[in-house]
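Friendly challenge for the regulars: who can give me the structure tokens for this chain first? No prize, just bragging rights.
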Amino acid sequence: MREYMPTVCQAVAANGYIVYAYFTDGRITKLDMTDKLNKEVFKPLQDMETFIKRLTVMNDTVAWDLSGKHDPSDCIDIDPITLYELPAIKESEIIPLVS
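First reply, four minutes later:
Bragging rights claimed.
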């Protein structure tokens, strides 16, 4: 039985369709969305401006608020357990977004 339910408290976009997920227990993971962007559900995120500007935390996980209304029924989100199971990284490994 899982003692900690992964809860994302911050999501940060980086170049190359990368998202850093910060969890409430201090863990940080790095998600590379590149391979997922060809799937129909993720196609709106192919636009880099949408990918960056609509990234948020919703439902305790990484999400993209497509409508801008913070409506959970109109967002794309990633299962927090999937994110949590990615290898942990150190804050020093984070490469900031360069515009």
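The mean pLDDT is 94. The domain at 8-91 is CATH 3.30.2020.10 (NE0471 N-terminal domain-like). Your move, everyone else.
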